[in-house]
Design brief:
The complex is a heterodimer of chains A (about 160) and B (about 200). Chain A has about 160 residues and is an alpha+beta fold. Chain A has two domains: about 25 residues; about 120 residues, no CATH class. In chain A, about 20% of the residues lie in helices and about 45% in strands. In chain A, strands 1, 2, 3, 4, 5, 6, 7, 8, 9, 10, 11 and 12 form a twelve-stranded mixed sheet that branches. The longest helix of chain A is centred in the N-terminal third of the chain and has 22 residues. Chain A is globular. Chain B contains five helices and nine strands. Chain B has two domains: about 80 residues, no CATH class; about 110 residues, OmpA-like domain (60s Ribosomal Protein L30, Chain: A, 2-Layer Sandwich), CATH 3.30.1330.60. Chain B has a four-stranded mixed sheet. A three-stranded antiparallel sheet of chain B has the order 1-4-5, with no helix packed on it. In chain B, strands 2-3 form a two-stranded antiparallel sheet. Classes of the chains: A alpha+beta (about 160), B alpha+beta (about 200). At the A-B interface, strand 1, strand 6, strand 7, strand 9 and strand 11 of A face strand 1, strand 2 and helix 3 of B.
Amino acid sequence: MAGRKKFGLALWLAAAMLIATAGGASAAETTPIAQIKKVTGQAAVLRAGERRPAVVGDMLFVKDVIETGPDGGIGITFTDNTVFSAGPSSEIALAEFQFDSNDFRGAMLADMRRGTMAVVSGDIARSTPGAMKIRTPTAILGVRGTTFAVQVYGNH
Amino acid sequence: MIWRTIPALASLVILAGCPRQALFVVLPNAEGGGVGAITIEEEKTVTTLDQPYATAESRAGSTAAIAEAQGNISVIFRSAIAAQPILPHHFRLYFILGSPEPTPESKAAYRAVFDDTKQRPVYQIEVIGFTDTLGDLPSNQALSLARAAAIRDTLVRDGLDRQAISIAGRGKRDLLVPTADQTPEPRNRRVEITVR
């Protein structure tokens, strides 16, 4: 009986490891970093090569890409209280995000590939100077606690 | 003199021929408070914008501050700004000495927290408890967590989703008002709540 139990456990562990390896999921990628708060028109989330419609209330993870169609818009709020909102025909990759809610320190990097986005910075930009960055195809933007907007033109 | 302006003019003509690649604008602070800054680095240029409606553009491998009419900025970013969710809001409630019971004033202030969640299509709530410095570390740690849990339980009793509420206790480690150890201080006996 005990032997069978052990075998069952080993099997279960092996299966769990297989799933973890196949999914390529590390702890960082399974912790939600933001929540979708607002959606208008067409908006989608690209995750591990799969595109799914953006739904209010859904969580977002590191490496997710948010996309909007020609009439779309999406608003998300990160766990550090940073707020992103994108207009139509936009594509933004949530490339890096770490945040410690105990001391409010962390780092974030978003890749703004095209479209328009307004940003209200949160705890990371406030507590860790230089730790919040937005990358466009040609430039990199550092944030010191502020509200701002970026437009990236499609013809670069 | 003319020989100096010709290359400058030539580079202007070249720049004008290159399409704009990106536009950066500092917006007025949404809910009051000071305006910070953004710094844009591209190849050899570093551009800092720190005033409302200060604008820069990327063109031909460099970024420079430009003048852009406020009206144009509003048009370009109208949809992005319209997609902005309700911003996160912060609340502070105070507690009776040594107790997980809010003060009478804070029971009234609690209503504002509850009402705020009702403005939002979806919400997440963080509740962090704190104590003053009276007593030892372990009992204050427990008390701070009990304060956060008390508020969470009230929110759940009022119909909010338990899964959307996280709680933590910081004991007497993070004082709002710095005091010596073993000092009763009403402003340190608190929970801090973020609704987003």
